[in-house]
Design brief:
It is a multi-pass membrane protein. With about 500 residues, the chain is mostly helical. The chain has 19 helices and two strands. A hairpin with a 2-residue loop joins strand 1 and strand 2. Helix 5 crosses helix 6.
Length: about 500
């Protein structure tokens, strides 16, 4: 074990605004947009899909501004887990931290498995696990070198995705107006059969689930704040620019797809990366006469899944490091080497991710349970952000502070966190209503098992250490956590 004098090392603050913006942007632009976005149109029609993504986008905006207010005032590596410990209840911080770490540690194997499937498009005779293990080694190396190597990698991988979406939007608009692909299509699909709204409110609510999973990853801005060079400026800029870009990309992309493909098109139901030729993006590019569309989109999706795995390893490593600093995990995971890398947290996360990846060779059912257990973790993390910010602002004013002391103000308090909390509860409860209707207990277990796991963690810590809700007067507003402090940079 490393000696105790070294275990108080600090993270390197080397991430710039451009890194933070692209990390958040890259975290949300992936297979959810490139492949699964079509299912939203098929389920709720073009109008219903736009409404669902619009409402979910507004909720995410409130959440990100809430996170931004806390992260600019107190940029800690543990982000919302550390905030929950300070502003709400240590048991909540304990449960949220392990919940989020588990979520990403289990998601990494899913992403590297997807990378293997994507590579089989070009090399079908090579076993997919070879590519998966190669990607796993690659992201480990990137995270091992330095936080800047992670930031730079994410910047360029995200840039590839952003350029792809921009080109798609330009080509799509050209098809809509008949500049490419033959006759103009206009808005005819918006009043085709039952369009624009198909299935009414229940269909829109079901699309909330798809939209919610698509937007997950934006909270990475909060995780990276602890390693940002100038968090007071970088975090707020990243949140505002990222939100509008994400909303523009998603809303505009869905609009373009809905204009070109009717909601009854069977290709919109495709959610399989192994069938890239049926992706809405590929179909639109082909309609414009771009013969290489499938191969190009496959390459883009490969960058997307590598980016997701890379971010997953970074986020889970930092959360495990924070858990150790708070006393929620073995102290060795809080050790930071000379390059500012929590090396043992990185190694520990890699071991768990490799073990999770290996379960698919033992039995697919075990792998499915692991994926199911992590399914709701992102929404639970969002709940933690909403609760923490509500308590932070209340405590801040209760203790005699004024809003003028905050360098960044969240939008629409207290409506923002309350609205986000309520919508997250609706999404979590509505994950798999059909399974309850059919009394399919195995399906229910796989879908909702993340909730009892979180509650077990919460009540375990609460009962063992007899924690309670911290009164507003006693909320800790000091800008430090165990082993980590922050001094603001003067403007």
């Amino acid at each position: 074990m490393a000696d105790e004098s070294k275990s108080t090392g600090h993270m390197e603050r080397t991430l710039q605004t451009r890194h933070l913006s692209m990390i958040a942007l890259g975290g949300t632009i992936g297979t959810g947009l490139f492949i699964a976005s079509g299912s939203a149109i098929s389920t709720a029609g073009p109008g219903g899909a736009l409404v669902a993504y619009g409402i979910m986008g507004i909720m995410v905006y409130f959440l990100m501004t809430s996170l931004g207010e806390m992260a600019t005032y107190m940029p800690l590596t543990g982000s919302f887990s550390a905030y929950s410990t300070k502003f709400v209840d240590p048991a909540l911080g304990f449960a949220l931290g392990w919940n989020y770490w588990f979520n990403w540690a289990i998601t990494i194997p899913v992403d590297v498995t997807t990378a293997g499937i994507v590579m089989n498009y070009w090399l079908p005779n090579v076993p997919g696990w070879i590519f998966s293990v190669t990607v796993m080694a690659l992201i480990f190396l990137i995270n091992y070198l330095s936080v800047r190597s992670y930031g730079e990698t994410e910047f360029w991988l995200a840039l590839v995705k952003v350029i792809t979406v921009i080109v798609f939007l330009i080509v799509g608009v050209a098809i809509i107006f008949g500049i490419m692909g033959g006759k103009p299509v206009g808005l005819s699909n918006f009043h085709y059969k039952q369009a624009p709204f198909v299935g009414g409110v229940p269909a829109i609510i079901s699309v909330f689930l798809v939209a919610g999973f698509s937007f997950q990853g934006t909270e990475l801005v909060g995780i990276t704040a602890g390693e940002a060079a100038t968090p007071e400026k970088s975090v707020s800029k990243a949140i505002h620019s990222t939100f509008w870009r994400i909303l523009l990309f998603y809303i505009f992309a869905i609009f373009v797809i809905a204009c070109i493909l009717p909601y009854t098109d069977k290709n919109l139901l495709n959610q399989d990366v192994s069938n890239i030729t049926m992706s809405p993006f590929t179909i639109v590019f082909k309609r414009a006469g771009l013969a290489f569309a499938a191969s190009a989109m496959n390459a883009v999706i490969l960058t997307a899944v590598i980016s997701a795995a890379n971010s997953g390893l970074y986020a889970s490593t930092r959360m495990l490091y924070s858990q150790a600093r708070e006393g929620y995990a073995w102290r060795i995971f809080g050790y930071v080497n000379r390059r500012g890398i929590p090396i043992y947290a990185l190694l520990g996360t890699m071991v768990v991710s490799l073990a999770a990846y290996a379960t698919q060779f033992i039995g697919p059912q075990a792998y499915n349970y692991l994926i199911g257990a992590s399914g709701l973790c992102g929404f639970i993390a969002w709940l933690g952000i909403a609760i923490s910010h509500y308590r932070f602002r209340k405590a801040f004013l209760k203790q005699g502070h004024t809003l003028s002391e905050l360098k960044y103000h969240a939008t629409g308090f207290p409506f923002g966190p309350v609205f986000a909390f309520a919508l997250c509860i609706i999404v979590i409860c509505g994950q798999n209503i059909d399974a309850f209707v059919k009394m399919d207990w195995q399906n229910i277990l796989i879908t909702y098992m993340g909730i009892p796991l979180f509650l077990i963690l919460f009540f375990y810590y609460k009962i063992r250490y007899k924690t309670h809700l911290i009164s507003l007067e006693k909320v800790d507003l000091s800008r430090q956590t165990k082993g980590e402090s922050y001094e603001p940079v003067d403007d």
